[in-house]
């Protein structure tokens, strides 16, 4: 089967017009039965909604463009731009008390309304991607079609496989992941089209095609890294009649466990998007604003996600839990947990997985994982340990007084679930996070290009200049 990228390149050689890429897409979809007469494709639906959405933004800026929406303090400037209102991110908004909402819908609401796989309990990532891009809940048929389209686009170029095979096994999985995604730039239809010259109004079309290709290939790339580093190097082929979460679980080697497959679906949904100010989301948006391809933009975001203050946190949580388990043994009493928490804090360390830059309550993503564990593994010793920490830690952290949010975030739970099902290699967990995060940041990249978002270029000052601005003498 020819890959989408090869078909895209052929189309670009013949024509770079809006009509030609639409025709190419329509032909490609029809040939593989992606859509039916009764069901619009994702690209068709986004294109149909776009004029109305552009008009909304145009009207908003025309009528309210000069209004002040906030102020910036010197503390915010030196504190990592925390809380400064300066980014547009359509997919999700994070409220300090309510948690994340995807296009206005909470995680429980998404679990309820987004389509599920036959026999599955958790929402399909395909449905969330559709929601993030269009603001609409897709039908089951639309989600099935999207599953089929991603499966059909999933072929990974041979040179990417060889590149991963040549990586030393001790090169961190996230470095290998970023390397492979960067190398996919070779397949970018956006980069090829831009080099030949296209109208700005067509940018989103090529960004969409690249994003779809990229998302489709990520499970195979991520699984090859996992199987190379930790297993036998053999990766199962994508099953073209299955959904995205199943294929990721199956290619990792856990497809026979239905509960793990459902966990992957949930994991991909809840880790996908957390508004635009976090490092991986903002970096993808920033690099994309320079009109770098989705491949280069996502790779930049992945490099940010790899940091210990971002995506690596779930690995640190698990290491901390194992150390606790080794110290307290089977004593899960309130006193034993309390003493260990204080020993961590008194050593000048943080309690990993607790606290959040924005949230001031238990992270709903944590809650969804906890509820999954309560249904599927209520007697697991590590889950019992996590539950006890959840019971005790907020009290200890409140008494400690140096944590604005004493409640757990998503990282406090995910590693325990993966461990239970046998995926014990904690250094790999951030790669899974990266696959999920692509589902959240790439819809916004498509929207950015559709809305004609400019290159991001905030103003910076030296410390001396800031001192002068506030009337201080250094």
TrEMBL record:
Entry similarity comment: Belongs to the citrate synthase family.
The protein's name in its UniProt record: Citrate synthase
Gene3D superfamilies: Citrate Synthase, domain 1 (1.10.580.10), Cytochrome P450-Terp, domain 2 (1.10.230.10)
InterPro entries reported for this sequence: Citrate_synth-like_lrg_a-sub, Citrate_synth-like_sm_a-sub, Citrate_synthase, Citrate_synthase_AS, Citrate_synthase_euk, Citrate_synthase_sf
Active-site residue numbers: 310, 356, 411
Organism from which the protein derives: Glutinoglossum americanum
GO cellular component annotations of the record: mitochondrial matrix
Catalytic activity: propanoyl-CoA + oxaloacetate + H2O = (2S,3S)-2-methylcitrate + CoA + H(+); oxaloacetate + acetyl-CoA + H2O = citrate + CoA + H(+)
GO terms assigned for molecular function: 2-methylcitrate synthase activity; citrate synthase activity
GO biological process: carbohydrate metabolic process; citrate metabolic process; tricarboxylic acid cycle
Alphabetic keyword roster: Transferase, Transit peptide
